[in-house]
TrEMBL record:
Protein name: Pur operon repressor
Family to which the UniProt record says this protein belongs: Belongs to the purine/pyrimidine phosphoribosyltransferase family. PurR subfamily.
InterPro entries, sorted: PRTase-like (IPR029057), PRTase_dom (IPR000836), Pur/Pyrimidine_PRTase (IPR050118), PuR_N (IPR015265), PurR_Bsub (IPR010078), WH-like_DNA-bd_sf (IPR036388), WH_DNA-bd_sf (IPR036390)
Domain Phosphoribosyltransferase: 111-244
Subunit composition and interactions: Homodimer.
Domain Bacterial purine repressor N-terminal: 4-73
Keywords: DNA-binding, Transcription, Transcription regulation
Source organism phylogeny: Bacteria, Bacillati, Bacillota, Bacilli, Bacillales
Native species: Fictibacillus barbaricus
Superkingdom of origin: Bacteria
Length: 276
């Protein structure tokens, strides 16, 4: 389709935003817009500058016959801080306290805008890692895992407490819950992960880390590799942590049911390669 330059740049920008982490040959855009390669390169240079100035990520150009252009989603420090602060304030609402000291967080996980923003934050944190698949465990972590996977442009696999007929044969393991110390079971379809895949684990909440430890063991059964662990909220008061290398967005410091008070602080996240 032949477009004016303004229309071409709008369409080109939208295309990149909807195809993150995908290497696209310049020849594709030449044919798509019926424009010269030099014109497309100039457009991409402008978009690249704009994205980097506004913290939207990076546009990488790969030279050579097999090269092209790739958009890597990102988030700048100010926007990341604002997202985390919004999450902290939401979680500190005392009306979330449930009997037994539990917290109601379904509305947070069900907020598409916030979850998408947190997904972009996680994708930015792990942007330097080569990730083939995002793994989570049913059920609350699923929306967050899909948000992260969307910005990384990779599939999602969901670990469940029991197998389903529709998933075919499965691999099951027993693991010890870090909080209750009970032996539980998790299962994953054999077709979910290919041997040698690089996996990013995403979970909504981590206390001692028993569930994540179980997922790590399950990944090893597939002869796959852990590329990172992302946790939305971690509990601070834990006597023994079963997982050490992880990234958290928020940290739950205290739930005081008697005083009707919740204390939440920023997690250990960093925008520099996923390390605390």
């Amino acid at each position: 389709m032949k477009l004016k330059r303004s229309g071409r740049m709008v369409d080109l920008t939208a295309y990149l935003l909807h195809h993150p982490h995908q290497l696209i040959p310049l020849s594709y855009f030449v044919e798509r817009y019926e424009s010269a390669k030099s014109s497309i390169s100039e457009d991409l240079a402008i978009i690249k500058e704009h994205f980097e100035q506004h913290g939207l990520g990076h546009v990488q150009t790969v030279p050579g016959a097999a090269g092209g252009v790739k958009y890597i989603p990102g988030i700048d420090h100010a926007e990341a801080e604002a997202t985390v602060e919004e999450l902290v304030q939401l979680l500190e609402d005392p009306s979330r306290i449930l009997p037994g000291g539990y917290l109601y967080v379904t509305d947070v996980i069900g907020n598409p805008r916030l979850v998408n923003q947190i997904g972009r934050l996680f994708a930015s944190i792990f942007s330097s890692r080569k990730i083939d698949v995002v793994m989570t465990i049913a059920t609350k972590g699923i929306p967050l895992a899909y948000a992260v996977a969307t910005h990384l442009n990779v599939p999602v696999v969901v670990v469940r407490s029991n197998s389903r007929v529709t998933e075919g044969s499965t691999v099951s393991i027993n693991y010890v819950s870090g909080s209750t110390k009970r032996i539980q079971t998790m299962a994953l379809a054999r077709r979910s992960i290919k041997q040698g895949s690089r996996v990013l684990i995403i979970d909504d909440f981590m206390k001692a880390g028993g569930t994540i430890k179980g997922m790590i063991s399950l990944i090893e059964e597939f002869q796959a590799h852990i590329e990172g662990i992302g946790v939305l909220v971690e509990a601070q008061e834990v006597s023994e942590r079963l997982v050490d290398d992880y990234v958290s967005i928020a940290r739950l410091s205290q739930v005081n049911e008697k005083e009707n008070r919740i204390e939440v602080e920023k997690g250990n996240y960093s925008l520099n390669g996923g390390h605390a």
